[in-house]
Amino acid sequence: MGRPFLQYIDSPNSSKIYACRFCRSHLGKGDEVLSKAFHARSGKAYLFNHVVNVVVGEPEERYMTTGLHVVRDIYCSACKCRTPLSAQPLGWRYEVANEEGQRYKEGKFCVERAAIMDLERYVGSSGGSSQGGSRSSMGADEGELFEDSEDGFEEAY
Length: 157
Hints:
The protein has 157 residues and is mostly beta strands. The protein is 4% helix and 47% strand. It has one helix spanning 77-82; strands at 16-20, 26-29, 33-40, 43-48, 54-64, 67-76, 91-97, 109-112, 116-123, 130-138, 154-155. The strands form two sheets. A seven-stranded antiparallel β-sheet has the order 3-4-8-7-6-5-11. A four-stranded antiparallel β-sheet has the order 2-1-9-10, with no helix packed on it. The longest helix has 6 residues, at 77-82. The radius of gyration is 16 Å and the shape is globular.
């Protein structure tokens, strides 16, 4: 499968970047979090508008607390490339919501809090530029763009 192309998020206007808890690949910006009130198998989850460095699985119908949805599991592209058989999903992408009131979720990503970590930046007082390195703390989220690959997954960059 080769070495994955990973996108590095450098956003001076966002104070928080979310990364994969296992390999620390960047997944998404704090500005992209639409809701922190979601729940997943492992507990809390965040709904993201956009994530990067993920691959998506095959679509499947899944019953959730809000009704029937067509979803695709999402995986960290770096972890999936290193250990394709043992990679655990970070969450899922909503493809289709059958109920009208749930259509806002279509195309959005639900990422499990247990699978991500925060990379917080020190923001200086002059214009929001970051100073120094980044500080890591427990918890955070993910991202994507699609392209068909040989193994049946779509890679997101």
